[in-house]
Amino acid sequence: MRQGNKIIQVFEHELLQVGEQFQQKHLKAFSKLNALHNDMYFDLRYNGIKFKNFVGVIQVDGLTVEILPKIDAAETNEVLWQSVLIEMLKTTRKLKVQKVGNVNVSRQNIHLLDIYFEWFLNELELLIHNGLIKQYYKQTMNVKALKGKLEFAGHLRKNLIHKECFYTTHQIYDKDHLIHRILSKALYIIEDFTKGTYLYSRCKSVRLDFPEVKEIKVDKTTFSRVKKGRKTAPYATALEIARLIILNYAPNISAGDEKMLALLFDMNSLWEEYVLAKLKQEASSLENVEVYGQQSREFWQGITIRPDIVVKKDDEYFVIDTKWKNIQNFNPSTQDLRQMYVYNDYWKSVQAMLLYPSTESRAPEFKPFVGEKHYCAVGLLNIIEDGKLKGDLGKEIMDWYV
After folding, report:
1. For residues 6 and 205, what is the distance between their CA atoms, to the nearest angstrom?
2. 334-392 tens-digit pLDDT
3. Cα–Cα 20 to 30 A to 370, which of 23, 55, 228, 399?
4. For residue 213, how many other CB atoms are within 10 A of its CB?
5. Buried b / exposed e across 232-268, counting CB within 10 Å, b at 16+?
6. Which domain holds residue 247?
7. How many domains does the chain have?
8. 279 in any annotated domain
9. Is 275 among the domain residues?
10. Same domain membership, residue 66 and residue 183
11. pLDDT under 50 in the chain at which residues?
12. Are the C-beta atoms of 183 and 121 separated by less than 8 Å?
């Protein structure tokens, strides 16, 4: 665990207790956030919290807590595992940045929120530079000249005295539309969370170049109302970041005026998506090899089963289930083995593998299920090489199969 400059870095499954920086008000805010999400992020302990398998970053009342992944109980290298997390997020397209931070800022003081905020500001600056679009939208209000549709009931109610006005619904064509209102909402949140940092002045600068728009309440349904098309395509990335920031923003979650922003990712899902992305990348250079993720088949009465990854070479299938944990004694659970047996049976797979991260690779030894002609094995994959996340994981895994 590392603390400093109002940034605390911890590892998943680690205990964080109340102290000089992590205070009772932070603990209260964290516990309320956890309760809102059915206690899935961490377990409450006496005067502290114990993190689960979620990694990412939480900021509340000026304190940033960054939760990093690990595969070893004795892990202490925060810089390494922060870079591993960032690379996984980039590869799985949850983070699309080429460089991190600013030349005037110490690398150790950059955290995930800074990276997402900077990414969003980059996107907004690009949109402003290329020209912000105008859109039609309907507006109902009093106007001096009759245009659009006269709202008769509203007109009678509002204009008994003001005979010169008309209460109408009419179309407006300008930059004050839904997309810009969403982006403005995200910009205000970032501005609020970056006070006192190198990004605050940049936020103010972007704000000056951004059109004044009506403030709206944004939730999940707001994003579903955004109309997609050729003109709005350049906004896709900015809207995705805005969605992530706005929907994970929890104002006034604690007793005082503190505001919280939490970007958290299930490490099991992230590991699965990362392995899938690297295998697809490797398969693109091979003949007659295809890689699938999220492939489901009906199991019983509408219930489906889904292995994490299916590899097809020619007419043969191979199944992979990823597990983000340090396997003890190299023995998988009986439940996991039963699951792999079913996957083999339903996909007519030749070999199934349970894939775990490790500090040392160990190729799978495929052994048959008793009385069957299909096999299962445990694969240990070293994911660190030369002080960073290994880049050719897909090739190493594929070599075990094909």
Report:
1. 25
2. 999 999 999 999 999 999 999 999 988 889 999 999 999 999 999 999 999 888 899 88
3. 399
4. 18
5. eeebebbbbbbbbbbebbbeebbeeebbbbbbbbbbe
6. 2-131+178-267
7. 3
8. no
9. no
10. yes
11. 97-109, 254-255
12. no
